[in-house]
Amino acid sequence: MLKLLHRGKVKDVYAVDNNTLLFHFSDRISAFDIKMNQSIPKKGEILCKFSEFWFNTLPIENHMIRVTGKDKMLVKRLKIYPIECVVRGFLYGSLIERYKEGSLVIKFPSSFQPIMAAKLPRPIFDPTTKSEEHDIPIEEENIINNSFMTRKEFDYVKKTSISLYNRMNQIADKVGFIIGDVKFEFGKDLETEKILLADSLGPDEYRLWLKSEYRPGKLQESYDKQLLRDWLTQIGFKDIVNRWAKQGKKPPPPQIPREIIEKISARYSLAYQTFSGHTIDS
Hints:
Layout: E1 3-7, E2 11-17, E3 20-25, E4 30-31, E5 34-35, H1 43-57, E6 64-68, E7 72-76, E8 78-80, E9 83-90, H2 94-101, E10 119-125, E11 128-129, H3 140-145, H4 151-174, E12 177-189, E13 195-198, E14 206-210, H5 226-234, H6 237-245, H7 258-276
Antiparallel strand pairs: 1-2, 2-3, 3-7, 4-5, 6-7, 8-12, 9-10, 9-11, 9-12, 12-13, 12-14
Helix pairs in contact: 1-7
């Protein structure tokens, strides 16, 4: 029997041997760092296969060995950097919230109109801490000073992350989608010490919008879990999360309506089919 090393928000990680891990992608879903009680049908399978698609497509060495079954992936065990490498191409989500509250350290040119979902003059690297509780933005100097990465390693993952984001958007553009932002993870090969692309890469790691529906100045129709975040915001649950957070607590999640669950599942499936050309069996 494999040893369970970690049960995360999305996937379970098992030790196969000293050099190999097994990722089991689940149908679980979370938002605002709260795990929902309900699951999304086919989500685990789609996340697994989407990760396989990107690992096979992007021009960078990664830790994937192979997919086994519908929702499991064998990967190399790496020394993972404790940093989420976020690249943002649009003023959306937490980025626009930070802009409005004045905590955003990034300066935009005077010609830029800072409206919701506006395309940024160029993609920005916006790393965060890596936490099961709540990821928070972290500055380059803090990353270096805390020995999370050397400056050379930081420069590499920053340049590589932006390059990969641009490549993903080129691919997305050809099939009628826009990737608003993306989160990468990297780790060092235990033998060669080479930096590899790691973890997973699917609709839980990026915002995905249809080009035909993209309109700056409003919430975008999402083909990722933003759909759940938007619903939770509409019913006031995000405000509840913020109030409980002041006391160091997390509120119990609400019951997700069936139509929202079915819509998320259908959009995940459509996105995977559009990018890969393969369908998900019903």
